[in-house]
Amino acid sequence: MKLKHVMVDLRGQARSFFRVKSNLFWVFAFPLLLIIIFGAIFSNLGSEAVTLNVQDLDQGPGSQQLLAALNETGMVKIKFISPSADLDQHIKDNSLAHVMVIPANFSSDLAGNTTAMVELRLDETVSTSGTVFNAVNGVVNAMNLYMAGGEQHIAIEMGSIVQKRFTFLDFFVPGIIGLTIMTTCVFNVQGTISRFRANGIFRKLATTPMTPFEWLLSRILWHLFISFLTLAVIMGFGVLIFGMNMSVNLPVVLMIVAGSAMFSALGMMVARFVKNEETASMAANAITFPMMFLSGTFFQLEMMPSYLQQIAAVLPLTYMSQGLRDAMVYDNQAGAYFNLAVVAVIGVIFVIVAVLITKWEEE
Amino acid sequence: MDTVIEVRNLVKRYGDLVAVNGIDLDVNAGEVYSILGPNGAGKTTSVEIMECLRKKTSGEVRILGHDIEKGQKEIRRRIGVLPQSFNAFDYLTVKENIEYFGGLFDKNIATDELIAAVQLEDKRDAWFINLSGGLKQRVGVAIAMVNDPDLIFLDEPTTGLDPKARREVWEVIRKLKSQNKTVILTTHYMEEAEVLSDHVAIMNDGKFIAMGTPKQIIDRYGSGSTCVVKGANPAAAEAVRSAGMFHESLNGDLLVRLENKGSLAKLIGLLSGSEVTYDEVLIKGSTLEDVFLKLTGKKLAEAEQ
What we know:
The complex is a heterodimer. By secondary structure, chain A is of the alpha/beta class. Chain A is 66% helix and 6% strand. Chain A folds into two domains: 3-43 and 167-357, no CATH class; 50-147, abc type-2 transporter like domain (abc type-2 transporter like fold, 3-Layer(aba) Sandwich), CATH 3.40.1710. Chain A is elongated. The two termini of chain A are 24 Å apart. The mean pLDDT of chain A is 87. By secondary structure, chain B is α/β, with parallel strands linked by helices. Classes of the chains: A alpha/beta, B alpha/beta.
């Protein structure tokens, strides 16, 4: 093997890569866009109060006490409906999901030791309805206890099983890094091989002293470099813009190396078995698309039905994403090394197969 | 004169299909040797075996004195190849593309020298993707020359090019010949082979059906010269027919074969008859296209279909 040949090819790739704008978009801009979009959607999830529309027909001290207590929970934001409004029409016109009606006799019933009723109308198809019910139910129970002069015999002390407080983005970004490395490696390698075959570049290279192994090595090294660049850009963005908690350590570095080699080799295998350029691209899509959604990139594997979890268990991206998450976010070294071992074994097998089947010469 | 290519009874089969069917070939140093034939004739398969790109089924092939199977490393060092439908790296410049391939060889010619050789000085820093078809092929020829090869294979270098671009590539090939390089040119353009080649081998259905210099082939297999009587009236055709001269009518013209030295004088005598009229008279020699038609019974374009 001649290092000079590898360097010649690396230099050629570097020059070509940065001149193609679509490469820059898919490798750098696209993952950042995903992070921005998902970051904007999920960064405040759980902290935003849910709007509770209230028609206070009572306007008395009892209703004011109830509403003040609800406000204090921080779980709901009260928005008043005029007492004179036709409630059904108002709900319809404004597509309201959470409405509470305090009847006119609420304060007097409360004072007269008669059970005072509030009417809660919820749209159960809206996920925040549960939050509203819990808030109202909790306040009503507390008021009942207070008015009965009762004592609290059981209380809840909140704690966390995680060492650090994680956001959705902390979960999401390592998955995006794995996803970007997968798509970059598979599509670039498959596309390059298909294009080089169609353009006669392989036939030309086969008449030079460069060997297929030197060429494959150069391609894997190049995608390794691009993977680390992707890692740096995404992490830098996540930490600086969204204040994420992530660290780069040995298992992260090793996972990037193993993952890049594994997915580059996968791209080579796709290009070898599917020789037509367009069909090869479709095959690459058919392989990467399910992995994108089933490997826990966008949501936790536990949220999926068990049969999909079983499918996820055989997808290489699952182990890469989980390993990166364990190493970068959860500080779970054992988990990180286990996932790294799985990716490394698959990677070695893929690389060996790719080297054996990639040929320049025609039959 | 050194023989740079020796091929004996070369056969290449793909299952039941015989792509190359027992060809023999000898190419001398410094000549342009064209392998001519329609698509699917076996030209590229034969040449790719000589370039160490394909494995032969049987036969013997020696390139620059080396056996094709035992001496691949040495052969690759000393040959230059422009593959069929070759496109270099789209987003590298002309200079960078030549440097890339030059960097893979221990011995290489200076990039600027090659750029000058194919007259691309003003496109030196242009991306390959932005070049016209003819310019791309000139880059391909420059890349084929990076290692200063003794033997250069150009596989259909002008296919798909317009006539002007084709002639630009011809100039580059003539320049290679003037530098005493041996060039193997595969083409399906008869005119190209006729104009550029010292020797031609016409291939059809995996076999060479004629070999020699263009003149030798035309003399041996051609039908002699033909006199084209443009705008001939029926009386002219009748006069020729009555005289027993071999002729045919084509689009209002009368084509009369000149079978010997006296044929032309005899035809002029017939055309001077009082009832005979015509617009003009041209004399056309046989071409390789005529030879192909005669040997295969098909025009080249028909053979490609």
